[in-house]
Design a protein that fits this description.
The complex is a heterodimer of chains A (about 280) and B (about 750). The model of chain A has no long low-confidence stretch (mean pLDDT about 95). In chain A, a hairpin with a 2-residue loop joins strand 8 and strand 9. Chain A has three domains: about 45 residues; about 120 residues, Uridine Diphospho-n-acetylenolpyruvylglucosamine Reductase, domain 3, CATH 3.30.465.10; about 110 residues, 2-Layer Sandwich (Enolase-like, domain 1). Chain A has about 280 residues and is of the alpha+beta class. In chain A, the strands form four sheets. Chain A has a five-stranded antiparallel β-sheet. In chain A, strands 1-3-2 form a three-stranded parallel β-sheet, covered by helices on one side. Chain A contains twelve helices and 13 strands. Chain B is of the alpha+beta class. In chain B, the strands form nine sheets. A seven-stranded mixed β-sheet of chain B has the order 3-7-1-15-12-13-14, sandwiched between helices. Chain B has a five-stranded mixed β-sheet with strand order 9-19-18-17-10. In chain B, helix 9 links the parallel strand 18 and strand 19. In chain B, helix 6 packs across helix 7, helix 9 packs parallel to helix 10 and helix 10 runs parallel beside helix 19. In chain B, about 60% of the residues are buried. The chains are: A alpha+beta (about 280), B alpha+beta (about 750). At the A-B interface, helix 12 of A face helix 20 of B. The structure holds flavin-adenine dinucleotide. The site of flavin-adenine dinucleotide has 33 residues of chain A, from strand 2, helix 2, helix 6, helix 7 and strand 10.
Chain lengths: ~280, ~750
């Protein structure tokens, strides 16, 4: 039987972490519990975050929205603030697992797992989200793409906790799109996903666009070249063909039991084709 | 209430409330007092000679009670139904990754886990055999040295007429090679049970099993016990679908109990062990060739079917034989040459799974029929109608159909359905990047066992001392709800509300041998026996009622809920009072039934053929995403002739469950093995459909009146699953103009098929 601690404040979390540096943080546990199944043997001790109020909830300031790391995915999805300001994030989270998983799983957990298939990550990259980390040594903030360094790897240091995700309110996107390809319609790990946000004119000309892909590289795939390809153009065939070529060239997928490298590469390109003609004033 | 007054047959499932509230207990839910845990050490190598098993470290581990090996087994240590050659614990040769080499009995599950790691064994790897067609070649290592035909477990050939000549006379000949995957049952309740040697020295095994009576004999033989010293009890199962048609935990937990000094021992496979050690639907590769006249009349069929049995016979040869028997689906074909081969490999165990070999060959046949329709320029349903089997026709193996045969009506009803008739408009309105297609798949499915195996049931219905009607079920309820149906049937005969009655689940001590919960027979065969038993009991009750009410003529009496009443009068005698006047032995009545069979079919094929069939015709409407390759089943219509519908909800549940499983089989389920390793060993990698992947389904019943069936019914449990793969594969061809001959139709296969056609559009 593993030791489980249930602290009720962040200070207590830090105290416990300095006593037991090997403790595993346990937010919703939907990733940790899989890893602690008999075969995987992550044995604790576990430090539960669900009662730590400082880590929960969605709060806005004048310029930013702060989502506590231990806020569940369902809570994020249900938030009117998120629906209003970041519909792309909401849409992506609706594709995570199934209701039970979203009711337990947290945004912080999804980020810290740093899976190439983490569904919150492509939209968070597009939205320029930053993560707020705290430890007894202090507080630091960094962009999410700097925080995640590889599959399952982050900049999180010993004794450090991800406290919140901070997203600027002013995004300027009036068009967004998310598509996830999995092996079935729910409870599916992404085989490839596309998040797309753009600011468009009435005629569909793109002022600026950002694309991010999941599951086709060790971390979320983004490309300045790709984003720039869209600027000043409508989503027409010629532009999309160019985009497809850049995507297929840029991604570096793996083959596994779910899909081959070739399939992922092809589909990553195909996913932008769905945007053809989109972005016009609706 | 129906016009004919069969109101006790209708209504919600009697086990619905106890199931959704979790009150019903599966074998896995039982924690029998002070008990021990048993667990198997699995081989994880596909083929090897076992040299030694080292148990000392595990045995010395605190909390470990016993570590057992094959040397501790007093009996034959062999399981099997037709051939007995599967070891309970390996003594010489490991033949698949899930074989068990040792058994640990421990005080807790954690200790058990630790101890299993301490058991080690020495082995000498043997070259493995993994492809069934390769396995038959010269010089390939033999999986059973004593099998005269190398790795061929069984071949079944049926030849009728003059196929070669007939093919020469055909206007159109089409052919194809089709493949279907290995499918895992993925039951809610994984394999589980517990056992104990009772005060009288009897080994009592309570297990999640479809086959308590057959298990009893297998356990006795393998463990060296007198069959009368073994008792098997089968509570409600949390799903089985054929995966518990035979021994899973029974012998292991029995062996553990024999050395546990009267203490109960429980075994419960976790999902990974279940996937590793349980049976799967046999993968098949099928070479099909079909010839027809210009007007569509089928003239000749030739096919070779290869079924991958895995390492032990189990029921694999019989499954393949069913595939052969149904190789021509539901059509008249005068000239046939059907060859079935069931082959040993070092892959996962092959075994029964809803459909029992028929979904495989139907997938091949129904696709080749669509190919013929295309070549003939005929409507695919019209071609099926032209060749449809009717009463008096002979099916592909030559059996004359003398029982209800509503296949043509199934085809007609489907042809009339708006989802079929309005398909062209629907297809034409496909959104961007989508292609739409409609496909049909038809099927027949035999009821009961083949002629050589008596398909018998013995029911017992009792009026208890307290006046309750009790039915002793002889056939496990694996979730299909047959136990409740037995109550309804008895209630119908005895005019008693089934909610006031009692059912006793199969127990070799109480019930009478009644065969297995399989073969689309559970309601057909046992239900008939219940009717007979209930009729006898009715007579007993009325006679006693006559004494109670002091009337002469039992015809003046009737049974009403809870009582016997004088017709047209208010005078009644409560069943409790009626029961008091009957001798205990006479309060319990038996009923026997044997499913119809025809001895003259014994010469046709191995075990003989069947004579009674259910039929169906299906439509799948699908949407193919040309960017991702994903297939969406948008609409599904299943028209079924399974005789009269006893209970509409339970009938439709069988239809819907079969379609869901069939959609999984067609689109995503594929238990992948590589060199004998299990590559999809858990539910994260073995993908089954969710509720979102299954569309709303239309179930239409063509209610032929099967005069031999209880209230006119035939089996509904299996027939439906065989239609899904061909309907969906044919719909894919309809949508995209290209055929993928290997299911599941994964997005990846779809995209590469579309690319092969020249471009992503
Ligand atoms: C059946 C199932 C389906 C799933 N489907 C999807 C899916 O479709 N898409 C998807 O993206 N994911 C999916 N997941 C994965 C998982 O649900 C998500 O990643 C979820 O967001 C994880 O959140 P959690 O709170 O449960 O994380 P936990 O399991 O509690 O933690 C995950 C990791 O993050 C660490 N951690 C958690 N919180 C913090 C913190 N505040 N600071 C520092 N470290 C922390 C933990 O120590 C652990 O290493 C699925 C999981 C399951 C079991």
């Amino acid at each position: 039987m593993a030791d489980v601690h249930v602290p009720s404040s962040l200070d207590e979390v830090f105290r416990l972490l300095s006593d037991e540096p090997s403790a595993t943080l346990f937010a919703g546990g939907t990733d940790v519990m899989v890893r602690s199944s008999p075969d995987m043997r992550e044995r604790g001790p576990f430090l539960c975050l669900e009662r730590v109020e400082e880590l929960r909830g969605i709060h806005g300031s004048a310029t930013e929205v702060r989502i506590g790391a231990a806020t569940t995915l369902s809570e994020v999805i249900a938030s009117p603030v998120i629906a209003d300001l970041f519909p792309l994030l909401r849409e992506a989270l609706r594709h995570v697992g199934a209701p039970a998983v979203r009711n337990m799983g947290t945004l912080g957990g999804n980020i810290c797992t740093a899976s190439p298939a983490g569904d919150s990550l492509p939209p968070l990259y597009i939205l320029g989200a930053e993560v707020e980390l705290r430890s007894l040594k202090g507080r630091r903030r960094m962009p999410i793409d700097a925080f995640i360094t590889g599959p399952g790897r982050t900049q999180l240091e010993e004794g450090e906790v991800l406290c919140a995700v901070v997203i600027g309110k002013e995004q300027g996107f009036n068009f967004h799109h998310f598509e996830k390809v999995g092996q079935r319609k729910a409870m599916a790990i992404s085989v490839a996903s596309l998040a797309f946000g753009a600011e468009t004119r009435r005629d569909g000309t793109i002022v600026k666009a950002r694309c991010a892909f999941g599951s086709v590289a060790p971390t979320v795939f983004t490309s300045r070249l790709l984003n720039d390809t869209f600027a000043g153009n409508t989503l027409n065939t010629a532009v999309l063909d160019r985009a497809v070529a850049i995507i297929r060239e840029g991604v570096s997928p793996i083959s596994d039991i779910r899909a081959s490298m070739e399939y992922r590469r092809q589909v990553a390109g195909n996913l932008v084709m769905r945007l053809e003609g989109a972005g016009k004033d609706r | 209430m129906r016009e004919d007054g069969r109101h006790f047959l209708q209504g919600p499932r009697l086990d619905a409330f106890s199931k959704v509230t979790g009150r019903e207990r599966y074998a896995a839910d039982e924690y029998p007092g002070e008990f021990l845990w048993a667990g198997a050490k699995r081989a994880f190598v596909p083929h090897a000679r076992l040299l030694a098993v080292h148990t000392d470290r595990a045995a010395a581990h605190p909390g470990v009670v016993r570590v057992l090996t094959s040397l501790d087994i007093a009996g034959s240590n062999r399981l099997g139904i037709v051939r007995n050659h599967q070891p309970v614990l390996v003594d010489e040769t490991i033949r698949h990754a899930g074989d068990a080499v040792a058994l640990v009995v421990a005080e807790s599950r954690e200790t058990l886990r630790e101890a299993l790691e301490l058991v080690t064994f020495d082995h000498e790897p043997l070259p493995g055999v993994f492809d069934p067609e390769q396995a038959l070649k010269e010089g390939v290592p033999r999986i059973h040295g004593d099998n005269e035909e190398g790795n061929l477990m069984r071949a079944v050939r049926v030849r009728r007429g003059d196929p070669d000549g007939a093919f020469r006379g055909c206007d159109v000949v089409v052919e194809g090679v089709f493949e279907t995957p290995r499918q895992e049952h993925a039951c809610l309740e994984t394999e589980a049970g517990w056992a104990r040697v009772d005060e009288a020295g009897v080994l009592v095994v309570v297990a999640s099993t479809q086959t308590p009576y057959r298990d009893r004999k297998e356990i006795a033989a393998a463990l060296g016990l007198d069959v009368n010293r073994v008792r098997v009890i089968a509570p409600y199962l949390g799903g089985a679908f054929g995966g518990k048609d035979g021994i899973t935990v029974q012998c292991l937990v029995g062996l553990a109990a024999l050395s546990a000094g009267g203490v109960s021992v429980k075994m419960w496979w976790d999902r990974r062990e279940s996937f590793l050690a349980s049976m799967k639907r046999l993968p098949a590769r099928m070479h099909y060739r079909l010839g027809a006249k210009k007007d569509g009349t089928f003239e000749a069929l030739s096919c070779r079917l290869y079924y991958d049995a895995g390492p032990y016979a189990g029921l694999a040869g019989e499954i393949m034989a069913m595939g052969v028997e149904h190789a021509g689906s539901a059509y008249r074909i005068p000239n046939v040459n059907i060859e079935g081969y069931c082959v040993y490999t070092n892959n996962a165990l092959g075994g029964p799974f809803r459909g029992f070999g028929v979904p495989q060959s139907t997938a091949g046949m129904e696709q080749v029929v669509d190919m013929a329709a295309e070549k003939l320029g005929m409507d695919p349903l019209e071609l099926r109608r032209v060749n449809a089997l009717g009463t008096g026709d002979r099916n592909c193996v030559g059996v004359e159909l003398k029982y209800s045969t509503g296949f043509s009506e199934c085809v007609d009803r489907l042809a009339d359905h708006p989802l079929w008739k309005e398909r062209e408009a629907w297809k034409a309105s496909a959104p961007p990047w989508k292609k739409r297609g409609c496909g049909v798949g038809c099927m027949a499915h035999a009821i009961g066992y083949p002629a050589l195996i008596p398909d018998e049931a013995n029911a017992r219905v009792e009026l208890t001392e307290s006046g309750t009607i009790r039915v002793y079920s002889g056939v496990s309820d694996m979730g299909q709800g047959n136990a409740g149906t037995y109550l309804r049937i008895a209630g119908e005969i005895l005019n008693q509300d089934p909610a006031t009655m009692e059912v006793i689940q199969p127990d070799t001590d109480h019930g009478l041998p009644s065969g297995t919960s399989s073969a689309s027979r559970t309601t057909y065969t046992f239900g008939n026996a219940v009717i007979r038993a209930a009729r006898s009991l009715k007579e007993v009750i009325l006679r006693s009622g006559a004494r109670c009410l002091e009337v002469e003529d039992i015809d003046s009496l009737e049974l009403v809920p809870g009582a016997v009443r004088i017709k047209g009068s208010g005078r009644k005698a409560a069943l409790r009072d009626v029961a008091a006047l009957i001798d205990a032995v006479d309060r319990s009545c038996k009923g026997y039934f044997r499913t119809p069979y025809d001895e003259s079919t014994l010469g046709i094929m191995y075990l003989g053929a069947h004579v009674l069939f259910s039929f169906g015709a299906h439509l799948a409407r699908i949407e193919v995403d040309t960017l991702t390759g994903r297939i969406d089943v948008v609409d599904y219509v299943a028209v079924t002739d399974a005789g009269r519908v006893l209970n509409r909800a339970q009938y439709d549940q069988q239809v819907q469950g079969s379609i869901a499983q069939g959609i999984g089989y067609a689109l995503m389920e594929d238990y992948v093995m590589k060199d004998g390793r299990h590559e999809t060993g858990d539910l994260a990698t073995y993908i089954i459909p969710t509720s979102l992947d299954v569309p709303d389904m239309v179930s239409i019943a063509v209610e032929t009146d099967e005069t031999t069936g209880p209230f006119g019914m035939k089996g509904i449990g299996e027939v439906v699953i065989s239609g899904c793969v061909p309907a969906i594969a044919n719909a894919f061809h309809d949508a995209c103009g290209v055929r993928i001959t290997r299911v599941p139709l994964t997005p990846e296969r779809v995209l590469s098929a579309l690319a092969g056609q020249g471009g992503k559009e």
